[in-house]
Amino acid sequence: MRDASRYSPQTMSNATRETPEFKLLAQGLAAYESKPAQVRRAVANLTREQLNTPAAPGSWSIMQLVVHLLDSDMAATHRMRRMAAEELPLLIAYDHDAFMTKLDFAHTDLAETLDLFELNRKFTARWLRTLDVDTMTRAGVHSERGLITLNDILKMYSWHVDHHLAFVPGKRASLGAAPAPAQ
């Protein structure tokens, strides 16, 4: 029998669902899971040329931004899984600037990248729902940020998408693309 303190709504009593910890986790997971649809809308109806053209010298192309979201999400999933399984793991940062300058983005398939991003989010959210609420307070030591909890990473990676998507309307406009479709 599963522990009633697990997040999964199917196994929780109504009293457990009313705890502040559960409500915060449920809100965090809902925000986390909503991001792939937001990314899809933000980059919809762009040509390959628009996707791969930086809006200004030294800036990232929209394709680079989307692939960066996928790269960082896969790193985040790995970090969260290590934090749940290991005692205070060391979480090594990666050099996203090196990714931008040394990896090919021009031949990346947008649909495939968006699908992978969405599937990783679904996989991770489903897995996170199997954890005890207390497990979300487990920590790791990030090589740049220091001590960080699973809850912190969940919030950070919702914010991370919002942070990057805030630049897309300006990039679209400077490339002569129509605004992204409304919700």
Report what the structure shows:
With 183 residues, the chain is mainly α. The chain has one domain (9-174): dinb family like domain (Four Helix Bundle (Hemerythrin (Met), subunit A), Up-down Bundle), CATH 1.20.120. The protein has helices spanning 14-17, 20-42, 48-52, 62-85, 96-102, 110-128, 150-165, 168-174, and strands at 90-91, 139-142, 146-149. Strands 1-2-3 form a 3-stranded mixed sheet. Helix 2 (20-42) runs antiparallel to helix 6 (110-128). It is globular, with a radius of gyration of 18 Å.
Please name the fourth-level CATH homologous superfamily. Answer: dinb family like domain
Low-confidence stretches: 1-10
Based on helices, strands and strand pairing, what is the structural class? mainly alpha
Q: Biggest sheet, open or closed, and with what strands and sense?
A: 3 strands, mixed
Structural features:
single chain, 183 residues, mainly alpha, Four Helix Bundle (Hemerythrin (Met), subunit A), globular, disordered N terminus
Write the layout of secondary structure elements.
Layout: H1 14-17, H2 20-42, H3 48-52, H4 62-85, E1 90-91, H5 96-102, H6 110-128, E2 139-142, E3 146-149, H7 150-165, H8 168-174
Parallel strand pairs: 1-2
Antiparallel strand pairs: 2-3
Helix pairs in contact: 2-6, 2-7, 4-6, 4-7
Task: Write a brief structural summary.
By secondary structure, the protein is mainly alpha-helical.
